[in-house]
Task: inverse folding
């Protein structure tokens, strides 16, 4: 049952407001989906349960959520869009009935007798409305503010019952029992006065209000009344009498009263409230959030009240008697909607502190001059534009708060307040600040001017502001130079997020300097800053570090990241007090080799150009605990040198966290790591590691988190079982084929071995007790039986590949070729996973669309899980409700409806969200009718991101709803006078201005999403969706380029998560990467509403020129895929140094089908010399695929790191002869020529050849003197490769660049006799997909010099040096052509096994690690194994020799088909 169904049921039964939408069963259902093995997909229509009506809103039927409204009233309401309805409730929360408003309204079911009370988001009542008509206006404005624009939709939402969790109307003031207890406890109880037994028990009226216990006669307060002050007194339980309390006033002579209660519940209520009162030492009363309209009469008996808190009430007309509190010193009346400054406060001579924030006050009356004792006056969040002159009478005023008002100039009256020590003008409209005004306030120390429109500080030469110690100028419009040398006593300066270019200060007393987010190039400090301890000058344009800052002897924390520094001064790194240094995202190439600071604890040097680290970095900084050098060019790590004299006295470095992700580290770094025995967190992801010595890993006994992802590892050493404290192991995207021995680790919790080559999973009898997550996705060879799955089912989160990955047929084949997705989530160092993702590649009826979403709850789990479970269903209901509505409206209403469905959970909690819907649209062309196109519609709230990669560039789809990034939202909050706290949080709760949930922050925080639609083009490559933390650590360009390096979307998503964690992210992360391949649909392809060409072959009705033109501009071919890989390799040098590792891991689990698509027709392709018959398939649109055609689809990948996938015609000796990928020395005439084409790519409409003979053919065979040349048109992807010629030349040499250019033109085959030529053409004729597979293919038999094109050969997908690593996709799409020639003898086929190059010498500690008692037995087993290997090798060579003798004498070798 969905949430709406439960909502209606709960309301009919008369449950309270807190149960009207979401109950505990909903949250339990959501929490069970936190650990899932597959992406969650919405239920199909045939399996959906009863929910909202799936018909148009205008069909006259009532949706299920308005079931309370009778059919007669519903019909009247829908007749006119101007009519409205709201639901009324009684004060106790029970449902009263609907109230209708409009012309000729029928008799209302409920007619409110008078005022109507409104409550937002389950909070206390905040407003009182005079009648129901005003309530209807409030409801309509509320819905429009949320984001509902259509009047019909506003009408329907107002009549829905599930709106009660957001806004609810009552005919009387609802006041829960808890609020009543806080205001006043009263009743008639038996009491006894005095401690002796002489007094008898008598019935009296007893009240506990404020700070006193009031005892009166039973007829009320007409008779004698006695008050017992409880401040500093006692309240005790009486053991001799049941349910009895003893109240004693303060002092030795204080009176005592015994009160006996009728029930235990009542006894507990009085005990709880009385204990709070007696525990206070001052007369303080807190009546905030009690929906008070006037002060209770019993409160005035507490004459000792000195502090009264009345914020968040409705005391508009209930403050007339406040002057009766003669001892009142502090009064808080914030958020009471007063509308004006109450004059009754002017009669409180003892008042010293007055808070009137957020009361819509527009002016301060002149009578304020009577508050002569006021020391603190807070008027934040109002609409003040000026201050009265009478304010100068407040000579005792030391603090005045004028933040978030509408002041446009500095209030001159403030200069007449000599006692002012703190002035707050935050969030106003000030454009200039005359410093001379501050000089007139000799006691002024703190000046807060953040979030203004300041563009300049008006100073004069003779001004002296030595008394100002703290200045806050953040988030203004200051530009150019900022000269503050007049403030010689300045201790703290904050000028973040301006546009300053230079800064001048006096450092004599300076302690804190924060100037990040500017354009600073120069910072000048005139005197030595001897007290400076904290400096933040990040995100500027500094090319050199200010030398004056280095002179501080107490400098502890320095943040100089994201600048343009080329080096760090030695005086900085040698600082005696320096504890933390952040210098990432600069241009550092080398570091000082001298000893660093002895107290340095944290060092961040990520995203620089460091080639090595100084040898003394670990030796001189024995206190260093965190080192981050990610995204550099490191090949080795410094070796730690111990300073101890003897072995037992050696001082090991205290390094505990080492982050080296995204470098070029090789296997030699293990020696340096072994010298760091205190390591707890080690990140070595995306380096060049091929092995990790077992002896070195055995020395890291304190290791808790190990990340080896994205390397070239084939196994993890068995000595990992010695890491007894290890709780997280991540080794995805490697070549691991043996499961590591981790099930014996007692603390292991998270294991990620996805995207590897695992073949089996050895399971122990008992799994680790703390194991929470095991990720084995992307291991196509891994097959788990029922017993293994049964044993693994006890793991809370088990992720494995589905058993059947093959599509069921029909449209699923085509859709999966258009988009494929990968999901990655990580808990980080948080105790719970507060992010969730929604990945549904087949969404809606027929699975023609896709839906992807990421939800980030920051600190809560409930909201992301509820959104994950309901958002897909809500979108499907919206589509069915109004199928003709624009997709943008569907996404917008999906966010708003989900916001309502969060119910009571969403009242206090919220989440950021991004939702992307990929769907087909049909648009009308003036030339050709209806043409289908693929559209992406995206909506987001909060900080979740959506980035689209189009032709290598980033298109930001989302809007970042954060105050620092969104000027529009900041302006909106300024109009609302919303309070923004020091840490840039709205009302101190969240940094986001739009969220799903957090209803109690309305109207500052809204659920209205940003929605946009983008037509997907053939240039679009991938879509990245991420949680809030992803954008904080990865820029959009870096994330997109890193994902482009990896073909498999799952491995790409894993890569982004790993990079963010390597860069220092400790938060939850969720990433979805969607690989998209939008098909081309031109206007010439349109025929009515469908682009199918079932009858086009042989009909001759198509335009030959148009068909040939489409074929000539094709972008899908064999070498178009190949060229994109070259581009990926070249672009990879800009993002990270790990290219080879990503090549190995990118295609795991994503090979193509090995079935040939059926042939439909064979058109003619003519050329100047020859005519070739090419096979063709019928072209079908993606909306109506052919049932007989088998399209591109993904299957379980075969072995990725096995010689079984290698070419059986080549071995290691063949590779030694190869000088280049296309060298004539490697492939002379008569030898095997491999032409790489994609034989299973999804056929595009424009790739089909016409039935008529044209001069612009798909493939042209030209007969020349030196052989046959196959010429293909230059496709779009190959044209893009030319852009990277300069990069190719710089990395592979000019020869490599010339080779790439030659590959774009033609394929040249040596001449042979007529029989061989006919054989070549016949093989091409028989191949099914050469029409679109040889689109841009080109090879030449005139290669470059030996050894110059080896890098190009590796990039084109040839076998590696050891013959074991083969790209699965390339291996499965090789077309072999045999060319014979009389000039070259036939070389016999060599043996099919491979001989790898010798492995590097092992460390002596790694040769044999076995217990001494088993050494002899192990040696004997090794001798037996070696003997068996020699026998098998001899037998294999013998068989191959016999086979060679049988085939000797044939004129040409046999043709071998590469395994698909």
Result:
């Amino acid at each position: 049952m969905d949430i709406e169904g439960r909502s209606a049921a709960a309301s009919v039964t008369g449950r309270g407001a807190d149960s009207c939408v979401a109950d505990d069963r909903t949250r339990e259902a959501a929490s069970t989906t936190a650990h899932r093995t597959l992406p969650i997909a919405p239920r199909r229509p045939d399996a959906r349960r009863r929910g909202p009506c799936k018909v148009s809103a205008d069909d006259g039927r009532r949706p299920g959520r308005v079931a309370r409204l009778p059919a007669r009233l519903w019909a009247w309401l829908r007749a006119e869009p101007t009519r409205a309805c709201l639901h009324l409730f009684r004060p106790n929360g029970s449902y009263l009935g609907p109230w209708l408003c409009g012309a000729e309204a029928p008799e209302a079911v409920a007619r409110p007798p008078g005022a109507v009370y409104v409550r937002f988001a389950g909070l206390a009542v905040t407003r009182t409305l005079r009648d129901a008509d005003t309530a209807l206006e409030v409801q309509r404005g509320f819905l429009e503010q949320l984001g509902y624009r259509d009047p019909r939709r506003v009408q329907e939402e107002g009549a829905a019952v599930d709106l009660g969790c957001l806004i609810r109307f009552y005919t009387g003031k609802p006041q829960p029992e808890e609020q009543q207890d806080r205001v006043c406890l009263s009743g008639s109880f038996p009491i006894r006065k005095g401690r002796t037994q002489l007094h008898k028990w008598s019935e009296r009226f007893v009240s506990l209000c404020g700070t006193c216990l009031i005892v009166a006669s039973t007829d009320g307060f007409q008779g004698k009344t006695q008050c017992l002050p409880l401040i500093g007194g006692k309240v005790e339980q009486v053991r001799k009498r049941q349910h009895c309390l003893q109240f004693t006033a303060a002092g030795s002579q204080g009176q005592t009263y015994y009160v006996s209660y009728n029930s235990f519940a009542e006894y507990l209520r009085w005990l709880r409230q009385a204990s709070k009162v007696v525990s206070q030492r001052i007369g303080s009363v807190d009546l905030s959030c009690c929906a008070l309209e006037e002060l209770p009469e019993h409160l005035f008996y507490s004459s000792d009240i000195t502090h009264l808190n009345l914020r968040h009430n409705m005391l508009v007309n209930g403050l007339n008697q406040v002057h009766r509190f003669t001892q009142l010193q502090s009064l808080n009346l914030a958020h009471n909607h007063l509308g004006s400054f109450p004059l009754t406060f002017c009669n409180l001579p003892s008042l010293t502190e007055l808070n009137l924030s957020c009361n819509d006050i527009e002016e301060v009356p002149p009578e304020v001059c009577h508050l002569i004792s006021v020391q603190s006056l807070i008027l934040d969040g109002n609409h003040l534009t000026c201050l009265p002159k009478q304010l100068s009478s407040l000579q005792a005023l030391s603090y005045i708060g004028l933040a978030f008002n509408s002041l446009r100039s500095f209030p001159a009256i403030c200069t007449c307040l000599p006692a002012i020590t703190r002035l707050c003008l935050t969030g106003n409209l000030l454009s200039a600040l005359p410093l001379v005004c501050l000089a007139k306030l000799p006691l002024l120390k703190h000046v807060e001017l953040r979030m203004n429109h300041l563009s300049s500080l008006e100073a004069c030469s003779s001004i002296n502001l030595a008394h100002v110690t703290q200045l806050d100028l953040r988030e203004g419009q200051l530009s150019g130079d900022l000269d503050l040398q007049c403030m010689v006593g300045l201790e703290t300066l904050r000028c973040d997020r301006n546009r300053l270019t230079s800064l001048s200060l006096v450092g004599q007393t300076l302690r804190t300097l924060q100037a990040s987010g500017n354009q600073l190039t120069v910072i000048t400090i005139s005197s030595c800053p001897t007290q400076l301890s904290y400096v933040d000058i990040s995100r500027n344009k500094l090319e050199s570090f200010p030398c004056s800052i280095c002179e501080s002897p107490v400098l502890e924390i320095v943040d100089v990241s994201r600048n343009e520094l080329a080096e760090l001064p030695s005086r900085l790194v040698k600082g005696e007090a320096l504890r933390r240094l952040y210098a990432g995202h600069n241009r550092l190439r080398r570091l000082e080799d001298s000893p660093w600071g002895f107290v340095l604890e944290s060092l961040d040097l990520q995203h620089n150009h460091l080639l090595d680290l100084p040898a003394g970095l670990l030796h001189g900084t024995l206190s260093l605990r965190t080192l981050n050098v990610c995204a550099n060019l490191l090949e080795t790590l410094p070796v730690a040198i111990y300073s101890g004299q003897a072995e037992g006295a050696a001082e090991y470095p205290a390094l505990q966290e080492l982050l080296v992700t995204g470098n070029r580290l090789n296997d030699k770094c293990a020696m340096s790591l072994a010298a760091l025995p205190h390591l707890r967190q080690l990140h070595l992801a995306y380096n060049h590691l091929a092995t990790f010595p077992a002896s070195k890993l055995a020395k890291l006994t304190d290791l808790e988190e190990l990340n080896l992802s994205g390397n070239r590892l084939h196994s993890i050493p068995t000595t990992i079982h010695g890491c007894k404290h290890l709780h997280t192991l991540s080794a995805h995207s490697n070549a691991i084929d043996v499961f590591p021995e981790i099930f014996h680790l007692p603390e292991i919790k998270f294991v990620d071995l996805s995207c590897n080559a695992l073949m089996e999973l050895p399971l122990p009898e008992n799994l680790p007790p703390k194991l929470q997550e095991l990720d084995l996705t992307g291991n196509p060879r891994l097959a788990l039986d029922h017993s293994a799955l049964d044993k693994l089912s006890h793991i809370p989160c088990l992720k494995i590949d589905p058993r059947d990955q093959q599509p069921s047929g029909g449209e699923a084949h085509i859709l999966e070729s258009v988009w494929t997705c990968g999901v990655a989530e990580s808990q980080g160092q948080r105790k719970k996973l507060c992010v969730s993702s929604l990945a549904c590649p087949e969404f809606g009826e027929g699975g023609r669309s896709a839906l992807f979403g990421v939800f980030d709850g920051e600190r809560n789990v409930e909201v992301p899980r509820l959104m994950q479970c309901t958002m897909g269903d809500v979108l499907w209901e919206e589509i069915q409700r109004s199928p003709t509505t624009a997709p943008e409206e569907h996404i917008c209403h999906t966010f708003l409806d989900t916001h309502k469905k969060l119910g009571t959970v969403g009242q206090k909690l919220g989440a950021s969200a991004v939702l992307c819907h990929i769907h087909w649209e049909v648009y009308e062309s003036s030339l050709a009718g209806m043409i289908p196109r693929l559209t992406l519609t995206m909506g987001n709230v909060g900080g979740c991101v959506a980035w689209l990669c189009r032709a290598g560039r980033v298109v930001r789809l989302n809007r970042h709803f954060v105050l620092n990034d969104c000027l529009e939202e900041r302006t909106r909050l300024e109009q609302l006078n919303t309070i923004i706290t020091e840490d840039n949080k709205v009302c101190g709760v969240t940094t986001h201005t739009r969220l799903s949930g957090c209803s109690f922050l309305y109207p500052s925080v809204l659920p209205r999403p940003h929605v946009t639609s983008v037509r997907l083009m053939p240039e679009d490559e991938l879509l990245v969706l991420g949680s809030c933390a992803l954008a904080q650590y990865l820029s959009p360009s870096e994330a997109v380029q890193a994902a482009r390096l990896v073909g498999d979307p799952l491995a790409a998503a894993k890569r982004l998560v790993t990079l963010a964690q390597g860069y220092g992210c400790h938060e939850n992360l969720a990433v979805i990467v969607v690989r998209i391949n939008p098909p081309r649909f031109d206007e010439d392809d349109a025929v009515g509403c469908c682009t199918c060409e079932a009858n086009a072959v042989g009909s001759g009705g198509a335009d030959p020129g148009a068909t040939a033109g489409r074929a000539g501009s094709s972008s899908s071919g064999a070498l178009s895929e190949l060229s994109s890989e070259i581009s990926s390799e070249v672009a990879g040098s800009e993002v990270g140094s790990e290219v080879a590792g990503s090549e190995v891991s990118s295609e795991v689990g994503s090979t193509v089908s090995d079935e040939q698509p059926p042939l439909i027709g064979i058109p003619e392709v003519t050329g100047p010399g020859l005519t070739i018959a090419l096979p063709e398939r019928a072209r079908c649109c993606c909306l109506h695929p052919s049932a007989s055609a088998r399209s591109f689809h993904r299957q379980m990948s075969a072995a990725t790191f096995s010689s079984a996938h290698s070419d059986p015609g080549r071995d290691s000796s063949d590779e030694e002869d190869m000088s280049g990928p296309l060298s004539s020395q490697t492939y002379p005439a008569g030898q095997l020529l491999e032409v790489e084409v994609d034989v299973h790519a999804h056929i595009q409409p424009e790739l089909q050849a016409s039935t008529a003979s044209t001069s612009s053919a798909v493939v042209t065979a030209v007969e020349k003197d030196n052989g046959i040349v196959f010429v293909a048109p230059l496709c779009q992807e190959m044209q893009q490769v030319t852009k990277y010629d300069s990069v190719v030349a710089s990395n592979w040499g000019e020869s490599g660049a010339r080779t790439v250019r030659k590959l774009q033109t033609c394929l040249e085959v040596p001449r042979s006799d007529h029989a061989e030529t006919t054989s070549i053409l016949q093989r091409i004729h028989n191949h099914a997909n050469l029409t679109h597979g040889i689109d841009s293919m080109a090879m030449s038999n005139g290669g470059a010099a030996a050894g110059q094109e080896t890098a190009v050969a590796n990039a084109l997908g040839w076998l590696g040096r050891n013959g074991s690593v083969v790209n699965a996709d390339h291996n499965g799409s090789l077309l072999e052509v045999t060319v014979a020639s009389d000039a070259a003898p036939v070389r016999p086929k060599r043996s099919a096994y491979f001989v790898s190059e010798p492995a590097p010498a092992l460390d002596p500690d790694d040769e044999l690690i076995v217990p001494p008692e088993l050494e002899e037995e192990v040696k004997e087993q090794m001798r037996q194994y070696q003997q068996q290997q020699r026998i098998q090798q001899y037998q294999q060579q013998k068989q191959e020799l016999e086979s060679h003798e049988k085939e000797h004498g044939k004129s040409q070798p046999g043709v071998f088909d590469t395994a698909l």
User: Anything to note?
Assistant: The radius of gyration is 39 Å. The mean pLDDT is 74. Residues 1415-1447 form the longest helix (33 residues).
